[in-house]
């Protein structure tokens, strides 16, 4: 028996059985990496969680700083990474002044499912400020569904979500929810995001994506 839950628009949708759950954020890691340079000197991953993306960045960057506000996630990331020297794991708030992050120092700044945990415009401005001239900011985020277009995409996502979960299960790669990962509902809509991007990172490419995500890519103009 499959349970059902209401969506934000009041329409009922099925909840997948736990065996078909999978990582929607990691699904976009390959897409994100294709938008980044093949090699870079310094990279920063904001909201790194257990460090999966940071480890992939370390394969193509000389140095990687990986930040998360949850100490348990940084502990897990360190344990999963072994004695790598390419990644510096940092616990803290990227908006605070107590992290050793230098403005304009990073060729690459990434943020996956972390921007909605922070106030939008200050966070987007901070991430943009950390990118060096000519560098790239790449975001995969969550948004609040409010429009008929949002609902239409969700209708397409539901069967695709189950199909991808079935494929992962058949390959032995199903993933249960991580109880230690901080969870927060998105409060900003795509309209909010587009308005903030136009003001803070003009020229950024922001797109609605399947599986309840959006992507934003911005290249800071060269000095």
Top CATH class of the domain at 39-143 and 181-219? Alpha Beta
Distance between the termini: 59 Å
In the CATH hierarchy, the third-tier topology of the domain at 39-143 and 181-219 is known as: Rossmann fold
Mean pLDDT reading: 86
How many strands, what sense, and barrel or not for the largest sheet?
A: 7 strands, mixed
Order of helices and strands: EEHHEHEHEEHEHHEE
What is the share of helical residues? 25-40%
Number of helices: 7
Described by the principal axes of the CA atoms, the overall outline is: globular
Number of strands: 9
pLDDT < 50 stretches: 1-12
Radius of gyration: 18 Å
Sheet-strand content, in percent, reads 25-35%
CATH superfamily of the domain at 39-143 and 181-219: Vaccinia Virus protein VP39
Structural class: alpha/beta
Query: Any idea what the CATH architecture of the domain at 39-143 and 181-219 is?
Result: 3-Layer(aba) Sandwich
Describe what you observe in this structure:
It is globular, with a radius of gyration of 18 Å. The strands form two sheets. It has a seven-stranded mixed sheet with strand order 5-4-3-6-7-9-8, sandwiched between helices. A two-stranded antiparallel sheet has the order 1-2. The N terminus is likely disordered. The protein has a domain of 144 residues: 3-Layer(aba) Sandwich (Rossmann fold), CATH 3.40.50.150. Strand 8 and strand 9 form a beta hairpin. Helix content is 33%, strand content 25%. By secondary structure, the chain is of the alpha/beta class.
SSE topology sketch:
Elements: E1 4-6, E2 12-14, H1 24-27, H2 29-34, E3 40-46, H3 52-58, E4 61-68, H4 71-81, E5 87-91, E6 106-112, H5 120-130, E7 131-141, H6 148-170, H7 190-200, E8 205-209, E9 213-219
Parallel strand pairs: 3-4, 3-6, 4-5, 6-7
Antiparallel strand pairs: 1-2, 7-9, 8-9
Helix pairs in contact: 5-7
